[in-house]
Amino acid sequence: MRKLFIFTILIICAACSTVFSQWENEGKLNAWTLGTISRHNNYVKDPFLKDVRVARNKGFDRVVFEFTGDMPRFQIQYVKPPIFGTGEDEIKVSGKYFVEINLQTLIFPEDENYKYAPIEQNNLKLPVISEVQEIEWFEGVRPFAVGLKSKKGFRVQQLKNPTRLVVDFKQ
Predict the structure, then answer these.
(1) Do 144 and 103 form a contact (C-beta atoms < 8 A)?
(2) Which of 8, 63, 77, 126 has the smallest number of CB atoms closer than 10 Å to its CB?
(3) Which range, 38-47, 112-121, 161-170, has the best average confidence (pLDDT)?
(4) Antiparallel, parallel or unpaired: β 83-84 and 90-91
């Protein structure tokens, strides 16, 4: 019985380490790409998503995720539709091409000190971005879908004071 218990614990540990080890550092920050960008950020202060902003800039459209605490783990990549949540419900996002921004290890706002970060939805009127939509928030994983009018390169930046994840899409 003891061997079975130890074996079970080892299997659970191996499964957990496999899930988080899939997100090692991949791709180059601050460079335009069509490939995957991910960072396995270690943090001291729990990250909490405070704000999501979408704006037009000269030469690019920008999505900014602002956090209290440290930078969470993330993975950003082009995905093909349909886009599904964990409940297998299809998520409708306007656009012809889609980038998933997957944030991990985010705390849920269970007390009044943390407010849910809304996302601008209506009338973005941007050259590239059609829509930014949260897919689902489940067990610390919070993916977002960015609907694009055409397939464009993107760049990712990690900024501090305050902590921000910035994703730019070429116009």
Answers:
(1) yes
(2) 8
(3) 161-170
(4) antiparallel
Please report, for the domain that includes residue 59, its CATH number: 2.60.40.3500
CB atoms under 10 Å from CB of 143, counted, come to 22
Nearest of 123, 133, 148 to residue 34 by alpha carbon: 148
Q: Model's pTM, two decimal places?
A: 0.82
Cβ density class 86-109: b for 16+ within 10 Å, e for less: eeeeebebebebbbbbbbbbbeee
Kindly state the tokens that stand for 72. Answer: 């969470």
Provide the domain limits for residue 138. 26-170
Residue 7 lies in a domain: no
Residue labelled with tokens 């995905």: 79
How far out from the chain centre does Cα 48 lie?
12
Whether the CB-CB separation of 67 and 47 falls below 8 Å is answered with yes
Alpha-carbon distance of 138 to 119, in angstroms, equals 18
